[in-house]
Amino acid sequence: MGPFPSSFAKTYIILGVDYVSKWVEAKATRTDDARTVIDFVKANIVSMYKMPRAIISYRGTHFCNKMVSALLKKYNVTHRVSTAYHPQTNGQAEVSNSEIKSILENTVNHDRKDWSNRWMMHYGRTTQHTKPQ
């Protein structure tokens, strides 16, 4: 999601949702490029759980590129891409995006420069802290 007003050098939010448990992993980032996606998948998905069998994304260039395709091919991960102008295909991520946007609207200061810290604090304090097995 983004770009948002710069907050501690962060302008985007990347997230991943486990469709079975509905568990969300999200991170504020500086960019929304292929390297950011790969680093997020490795650090926030694979290292904490394991490589998923499939990833669903929209058609953004940070998801649909040679670097991400090579990573997914290496680990035999199916990449499903949502239909253009039909965000319901990636419904769980869209629900999480809406929740994060709501958190941002209700917690950040007027100048919106603190969103990257505020949403993480709010998100961490209001979510159940159990990870999927």
TrEMBL record:
A Pfam entry, by short name: rve
GO molecular function (one): nucleic acid binding
Biological process (GO), any one: DNA integration
Sequence ranges assigned to domain Integrase catalytic in this UniProt record: 1-104
SUPFAM superfamilies listed in its UniProt record: Ribonuclease H-like
Protein's name in the database: Transposon Ty3-I Gag-Pol polyprotein
